[in-house]
Amino acid sequence: PVLRLLEAQLQDQRREHEEEMEALKNQVDLMQEELEKQQQAFLQTLQLSPEVQVEFGLQQEITRLTNENLDLKELLEKLEKNERKLKKQLKIYMKKVQDFEASQTMMPVERRPHERNMQVAVQRKEKDFQGMLEYYKEDEPLLIRNLIT
Predict the structure, then answer these.
(1) 60 vs 117, which has greater pLDDT?
(2) Of 130, 31, 122, which is closest to residue 72 (Cα–Cα)?
(3) Given this model, what pLDDT does residue 43 score?
């Protein structure tokens, strides 16, 4: 039950990550469109006088860098918020797992359903085995000879 819960939550986080990746891809597409617009504007400025071209180019670059910095700050804040959220979730899940393990070790043996069955199964298997192979006592010299060769 705990592992299934953790798996489900991990899948939810994976899905959120994929959605974030899709949003970032869309953001990249928008940036490419903006770049194309800026290139067109740049071609138009080539027709202006050299002084106006320089001033216009600097204004465009300042605007672009300012927008890029704002976008990056926003992305950084999102990622930091997500990191804090994931760290909190991890602490909660680790605590749940520790509590679960502690409850399993403190529970009396007869009240542990799975462990009792496993112990019974182990007890049935523990017969008089002295190794990994089962053989008749009279076949022992043949077996040893085969193992050596």
Answers:
(1) 60
(2) 31
(3) 80
Rounded CA gap, 128 and 136, in Å? Answer: 13
HSE-CB of 116 using CA atoms within 13 angstroms = 7
| Cβ-Cβ contacts under 8 Å for 51 (sequence gap 6 or more) | none
Helix, coil or strand: residue 133: coil
Residues 33-46 as b/e (b if ≥16 CB within 10 A, e otherwise) read eeeeeeeeeeeebe
Asked if 101 contacts 3 with a C-beta cutoff of 8 angstroms, the reply is no
What is the per-residue pLDDT across 19-67, written as a single tens digit (0 to 9) for each? 999 999 999 999 999 999 988 877 877 777 778 878 878 998 999 999 9
Q: Is the pLDDT of residue 141 over 80?
A: yes
CA 136 centroid distance within chain: 53
How confident is the model at residue 41, as a pLDDT? 79
Contacts for 68-77: CB closer than 8 Å, 24+ residues apart = 71/27, 75/24
d(CA 61, CA 58): 5
